[in-house]
Design brief:
Blueprint: E1 4-9, E2 12-16, H1 23-47, H2 54-66, H3 68-86, H4 91-107, H5 113-134, E3 143-144, E4 152-155, E5 162-165, E6 171-174, E7 179-184, E8 189-201, E9 210-214, E10 217-221, E11 225-231, E12 234-241, E13 243-248, H6 255-259, E14 263-266, E15 269-274, E16 284-287, H7 290-293, E17 300-307, H8 308-316, E18 322-325, E19 334-340, H9 344-354, E20 357-362, E21 366-371, H10 377-381
Parallel strand pairs: 8-9, 18-21
Antiparallel strand pairs: 1-2, 3-4, 4-7, 5-6, 6-8, 7-8, 8-11, 9-10, 10-13, 11-12, 12-15, 13-14, 15-16, 17-19, 20-21
């Protein structure tokens, strides 16, 4: 007897052998699956409103933890919605959204507003689940190791951003060229930032700390918002709100760990760590502009008396076409301003208009800049 496909959850089809099942039994099982999907979709809808009462969140936790299938269904709903948002303008998603709206409109005369909302949420989750099979949506790699254990992989390509709602209703926004893994257990919500940059907006749950691991360090939060960026061996954390504590990954009996000071970070602080340094070495902590540090969420980078070398390195993160600087003087030129990510042509135009900079070479892969050798009298007077 061949296995019967029951449904798509996460990255893998879950299968089961149905021994001697009648058509009535199969129909009943499908109805149960549909009811579970609708319940999970309703919880996702409720938890993603502007305000969620503590009693509502507690009720959700009780439902989610009651059975493994509940957690699995909610994770599928959350991941599916992330895919729908990422590919919201894909023609097949637009068509299926339209079809869903038409179906619900026909039912609206006899359904309550709550029933319609549940049906709409469940229908769109079903759409997203189906589309993960047929479409390769850009910038998303959503994998589930075993469905019910909270293990997923999310990633973005160059120039892409992705917002993911996790099973606990926390949100993670991934910047360009970022990869994270989530491992949620009964006692801990853990995210591994393997590369790139992400903003974490954490739902409070004192019984399950929210932990971000990056380059051998653990950032522990209960309910807060913070940005973590990995650049080679450097890790930088910027606090937006709340409090985060820092801990190493090393064993508890390590002497360096024992000597390392307890570090608490609060809103407006920024911590920078060299992952190659001993955990006993105090990291650099300074005051930071959280709006500037997280401006990438709005598709901007903000420079303030920044060297052109650093500005170019930052903008190159968001584009397959790169800017290169020629000559020794150009990298040290300072600039300030806000620039759109992924639009290096606009950035180059601004440079060549307002600074003594010219394009000496351009093709599909690179734009090379150099100091302009045709300076005006005004530029010479200002020492350019």
């Amino acid at each position: 007897m061949s296995p019967r496909r029951l449904g798509y959850w996460g990255a893998n089809w879950s299968t089961a052998v149905v021994s001697g099942s009648s058509p009535q039994d199969a129909a009943a099982a499908e109805c149960q699956d549909e009811a579970l999907r609708e319940t999970a979709a309703l919880w996702y809808d409720r938890l993603n409103r502007d305000t969620v009462a503590d009693e509502m969140h507690a009720a959700f936790v009780r439902w989610r933890d009651a059975r493994p299938e509940h957690r699995q269904a909610y994770e599928a709903a959350a991941g599916a919605w992330a895919l729908v948002r990422q590919g919201s303008y894909h023609p097949q998603i637009m068509a299926l959204r339209h079809e869903t709206a038409l179906r619900l409109t026909r039912r609206s005369s006899r359904w309550s507003s709550v029933s319609l909302r549940v049906a709409a949420a469940a229908a769109l989750v079903a759409i997203a689940v189906a589309l993960t099979v047929t479409l390769q949506l850009p910038g998303v790699s959503w994998l589930s190791a075993s469905g019910a254990d909270g293990r997923n992989l999310y990633s973005t390509a160059t120039g892409q951003r992705l917002t993911v709602t996790l099973p606990d209703s926390s949100q993670v926004t991934l910047n360009t060229q970022t990869r994270i893994r989530t491992v949620f257990t009964a006692g801990e919500r853990r995210v591994l930032l393997e590369q790139g940059q992400a903003l974490f907006e954490v739902q409070k749950d004192a019984s399950r700390p929210f932990v971000v691991e990056a380059r051998g360090r653990r950032f522990i939060a209960v309910g807060t918002a913070f940005d973590v960026r990995v650049d080679g061996h450097q890790v930088r954390l910027t606090m937006v709100e709340g409090t985060v504590s820092l801990a190493p990954l090393s064993p508890a009996n390590n002497e360096d760990v024992a000597r390392s000071p307890a570090i608490l970070l609060s809103a407006g602080q920024q911590l920078t760590i060299d992952a190659r340094a001993s955990v006993a070495v105090e990291p650099l902590i300074r005051t930071a502009d959280a709006e500037r540090a997280t401006s990438w969420r709005r598709g901007q980078v903000i420079f303030e008396n920044t060297s052109l070398a650093d500005a170019v390195a930052e903008l190159n993160r968001y584009s397959e076409k790169k800017i290169e600087l020629s000559g020794p003087e150009l990298p040290e030129l300072k600039l300030s301003g806000a620039f759109a990510t992924g639009r290096i042509g606009v950035f180059v135009e601004a440079l060549t208009t307002y600074f003594p900079v010219e394009v000496v070479h351009a093709d599909d892969r690179v734009i090379i800049l150099d100091i302009s050798r045709h300076q005006s009298g005004e530029e010479q007077a200002f020492g350019f």
